[in-house]
Design goal:
5 strands, two-stranded antiparallel sheet, mainly alpha
Length: about 375
C-alpha cells in the first residue's frame, strides 16, 4: 500500500514536471518568435526603401511580450511544480523513515568475526587492495591461503572474459576427481566453448581435431551433447544462420562465470551467495516491519531492547530460506535449542515447552491436542532440523 502511494505521488510529480516543461518551452518559443520578427523588421530597414521606425517596433515588441506574460507564467508553473515536489519529499520522509536506528538493537558483535566477513566479501569481489587497507587499519590477521585461492579464481575469470579458457581448464584438470564426485560437467562446458570458438573463427579441420583430442574422452557420459556439436561441423563459420545458432549465444559464457565461482566456492566449503550481501538484503527486506514494530512498542512504552523474540512474523522471500524451521502449533513459538521440537508417539510434533505444560512438568501422561492418543514425556523423541 505504501509503495503504491509513493508510486502515485511520483507519477503526479513526473506528470506535472512534463507539463511544466512543455509550457515553458512553448512560452520560450513564442518569445523567440516575437524577437525574431522584431529583429527582421529592424534589419530590413537597411535593405528597404521604406524607413522603419525602430522605436515603434520595440514598443510593439514590448506590448506583445507583456501580453504573453512569460515571466509570470513560468514562475507560476515552477511554483506548482515545487509544491508537488515538496509534497512528494514529505511523503518519502514519512514512509521511508531515514532514521533506521529505531529498528536497531544493542547487540555485542565480535569485531574479529565481522571483519573476517567483510574481508571475505572483498575477496569475492576481487578488491584485494581494500582488504590490504582493512587488515592494516583493523590489525586483522590475513587468511593468506584464502586470499591466494580467490586470486586464482579471479585470474581465471578475467582470462575467461578475454575468451582464454586455458586457466579454467587447468584448474578443472587439477580438481578432476572432486568434480567427478560432485557430478559437475564443467569440463565439458569449457571444451564445448573452445570447440565452438574454433569452428566459428578458424577451420572445420581444426575444430574436428580439437573434438577428437578433448571431447571424445567425454563421449561415454555426454554422447547427446557431443553428437550435437558434431552436427554443427556442417555449418562452420556460419553457425548464426544454422539450426545450431543457440550454441553461439552469449548467455553460455555469462553462465560459465557464475558456475566457475559456484564450483570454486563449493570446493572451499563456502556458500556461493555472499553472506554479507545476504545479510544486508534480508535487513532491507525486514526493515519496514521492524520500524513499525519499534514505533508501536515505543508508543506503548514497551522495551524494544529487552525483547528476546519478535512478537510478529517477519516474512522474507524464498531466496532467504536456507534451512527448515519448526513452529509449534500450540504455542506458535519457533523451535530453538532451548525449546526443541519433540515427536510424539502418534506422529504429531510439539515444542518441548508445550509438552511440559501438557504433562504438568512431566508429572503425568497427557493427551495429544490433535488426536485422542495418550503419551508420556519419555516416549517423545527430539527432532533435528
Amino acid at each position: 500500500m505504501e509503495l503504491n502511494m509513493i508510486q502515485d505521488s511520483f507519477e503526479r510529480v513526473a506528470k506535472k514536471q512534463k507539463l511544466s516543461s512543455s509550457e515553458s518551452q512553448e512560452l520560450i518559443d513564442q518569445v523567440g518568435h516575437e524577437l525574431e520578427q522584431a529583429l527582421t523588421s529592424i534589419q530590413s530597414d537597411n535593405s528597404s526603401a521604406i524607413s522603419v521606425d525602430h522605436k515603434s517596433v520595440l514598443t510593439e515588441l514590448r506590448a506583445k511580450l507583456h501580453l504573453i506574460g512569460a515571466q509570470n507564467h513560468l514562475e507560476g508553473s515552477q511554483r506548482e511544480l515545487s509544491v508537488n515536489l515538496s509534497k512528494h519529499q514529505k511523503l518519502l520522509e514519512k514512509t521511508l523513515n531515514p532514521d533506521i536506528s529505531k529498528a536497531c538493537r544493542s547487540v555485542d558483535f565480535d569485531p574479529h568475526i565481522v571483519n573476517q566477513i567483510i574481508i571475505n566479501h572483498f575477496y569475492r569481489e576481487g578488491l584485494f587492495d581494500i582488504v590490504d587497507c582493512l587488515i592494516k587499519e583493523a590489525s586483522e590477521p590475513e587468511p593468506i591461503s584464502l586470499r591466494l585461492q580467490f586470486q586464482e579464481i579471479h585470474q581465471i575469470l578475467e582470462s575467461a572474459k578475454c575468451r582464454n579458457l586455458e586457466p579454467a581448464l587447468n584448474w578443472v584438470s587439477a580438481n578432476k576427481d572432486g568434480l567427478k564426485e560432485s557430478g559437475s560437467n564443467l569440463e565439458l562446458k569449457l571444451h564445448k566453448l573452445n570447440f565452438i570458438d574454433i569452428l566459428q573463427n578458424r577451420s572445420r579441420g581444426e575444430a574436428l581435431k580439437y573434438a577428437k583430442t578433448y571431447l571424445s574422452p567425454l563421449a561415454s557420459s555426454h554422447m547427446t551433447e557431443i553428437q550435437k556439436l558434431m552436427g554443427s561441423l556442417l555449418w562452420a563459420g556460419k553457425l548464426h544462420q544454422s539450426p545450431y545458432a543457440d550454441l553461439v549465444a552469449p548467455i553460455h559464457r555469462e553462465k560459465l562465470a557464475d558456475e566457475l565461482m559456484q564450483t570454486f566456492c563449493d570446493f572451499l566449503g563456502q556458500s556461493f551467495r555472499d553472506p554479507l550481501k545476504v545479510a544486508i538484503a534480508a535487513g532491507v527486506e525486514g526493515l519496514p516491519t521492524l520500524l513499525k514494530l519499534a514505533n508501536v512498542m515505543a508508543a506503548k512504552k514497551q522495551e524494544w531492547q529487552a525483547m528476546k523474540q519478535l512478537p510478529v512474523p517477519l516474512e522474507l522471500g524464498k531466496e532467504f530460506h536456507f534451512h527448515s524451521i519448526f513452529v509449534c502449533p500450540v504455542s506458535r513459538d519457533q523451535g530453538s535449542d532451548e525449546n526443541p521440537p519433540l515427536l510424539l508417539p502418534c506422529g504429531h510434533v510439539l515444542c518441548k515447552q508445550s509438552i511440559n505444560k501438557l504433562s504438568k512438568g512431566n508429572t503425568r501422561n497427557f493427551k495429544c491436542p490433535y488426536c485422542p492418543l495418550d503419551a508420556s514425556v519419555a516416549q517423545c523423541k527430539q527432532l533435528y532440523f
